[in-house]
Amino acid sequence: MDAMDTQIKSIAAGVAAGGAGDGGHRGRRALAGRLGKARKFLLGSHGKKGALPLALVYVVLASLGFVFILPVLRMLVSAFMTPADLVDPKVIWVPTQLYWQNVATAVRVLRYGEGLFVSFMLSAAPALLQTACTALAGYAFGRYEFPLKKLWLAMAVLFYMIPMQVTTVPRYILFLGYGIVNTPWSVYLPAMFGQGLKSSIFILIFYQFFRNYPKSLDEAAEIDGCGRFRVFLRIALPMSGPAMVISVIFSVVWYWNETTQMALFMGNSGARSLFGVSVSTLQTLPLRIATFANRFTAEMGANTKLPDAVSLAGALLAIAPVLILYLVLQRQFIESVERSGITGE
Description:
Number of strands: 4
CATH architecture of the largest domain: Orthogonal Bundle
Order of helices and strands: HEEHHHHHHHHHHHHHEEHHH
């Protein structure tokens, strides 16, 4: 009887020990599963980024964005500060009241309406001309074979690599001989013939786009009786919307911000008519900002000191159209950058 009791107790002890072992094993597996999920969440897996890499990317992007946007925010805030707020150390980011007189003075000194019109005509118009010319050149490079094609394409890239300062003086002498200095034609003619600001970039963009979309579309149009130029207008050009958006936006911004050539070709222009509108000068808004102090003295009197807030208000007015353009076309711009790399057959 005692032997039987001993055997039963040993069996029960074994069962209890086995159960405890199974429970410990299940606990370790559950802990390992939770650790694996935590690792996947933090570090990611199977091509998915985890929380830590994403957080690092956002921190870096936010830091870089803050560095770029801080001067603009400071300019925006200071442009609406009263003279008392500017010298008050307690007022840093939030003015005590919105002071519009700074903006009104800057508008008066810059002759803002006239400057905005001149800037638009000397940036948007050449941007459209440049886009049309570079699209046609890119289409020719991308769709047709002709003698020395690679050489001419290499020359386009080489022209982009040459500093602008190297060609500025010869171009000025050439334009002076043609009698188009201090006229809009000194900006329009280079854009019309693919010699505008950074035209080589846009030729390469259109070349890359046109060489990759399906040739069967051109062949189908030719079967229907379309000539080569009509194929370009009816088939290729409508399909190149993403490349055209990139070209127009970058061209407008670069022409708008250009001051070196504009000062050389337009700096001494007097009163004239620009597309039927009488203007006192062909200076763009960035050029007027460069001479803002002299303009303020001439407008307000030699004994009047130029406040910093008025200068910042003028700078804000000069960049406002470009900022508005980007905000309006931000979605189309991003989509164009993404779609411009799509390849066909």
